[in-house]
Amino acid sequence: MCAMDKELKNLILSDLGRLGIKRLPILGAFGLPPQVRYLILWRKSAYYYKKGGILRKWYGFKLDRAMNRTQITFPREVKAGSGIYIGHFGRLIIHPDVTLGNNINIATGVTIGQSNRGERKGTPVIGNDVWIGTNAVIVGRVTIGDDVMICPGAFVNTDVPSHSVVIGNPAVIHHRDNATEGYINNRV
């Protein structure tokens, strides 16, 4: 990996740290799973998207190509904290206006998108320490609190308080202290 700003390096290390990797790989992303390589590229693209210049265009081009190859649509405009973990290679769709907190686990088949009408018109804001299971859908201007587990297949279009487990379609919310304990490892 070439020389990079300390802020970018720390964000990439926070994501790798979720996998137990403590330092940047010597050979770049070679040998890492495709979703991890994508996440590193996404971090660079998002970072240089804000900075501007030639690297903004270069990493934007590379990210667009990677989206087509991986079926992961995680646009550089997404606002995300540290410690993002994408569990598997495969379809993942996130709207560009979504905000993600720290220590977010996202499984394959997840859609986090926009609602175009009604009182929930807009996109989600997701708190810290949130685990999102396979094929879950989160849509609209909703707020997901901290320490929330969204179970596989859940459809969420309502606010979810902190320390909750969300099950089903329509979403049923159950309070549970330490809802993500044992599900979110290596928190940053």
Terminus-to-terminus distance: 22 Å
Just name the CATH architecture.
3 Solenoid
> How many domains, as an integer?
1
SSE sequence, one letter per element: HHHEEEEEEEEEEEEEEE
User: What structural class results from the helix and strand content?
Assistant: alpha/beta
Number of strands: 15
What are the low-pLDDT stretches, counting only 5+ consecutive residues below 50?
A: none
CATH topology: UDP N-Acetylglucosamine Acyltransferase, domain 1
Give a verbal description of the structure:
The protein is of the alpha/beta class and 188 residues long. The chain has one domain: Hexapeptide repeat proteins (UDP N-Acetylglucosamine Acyltransferase, domain 1, 3 Solenoid), CATH 2.160.10.10. It has three helices and 15 strands. Helix 1 packs antiparallel against helix 2 and helix 2 runs antiparallel to helix 3. The radius of gyration is 16 Å and the shape is globular. The mean pLDDT is 93.
Q: What attributes characterize this protein structure?
A:
single chain; 188 residues; alpha/beta; UDP N-Acetylglucosamine Acyltransferase, domain 1; 6-stranded mixed β-sheet; 5-stranded parallel β-sheet; 3 helices; globular
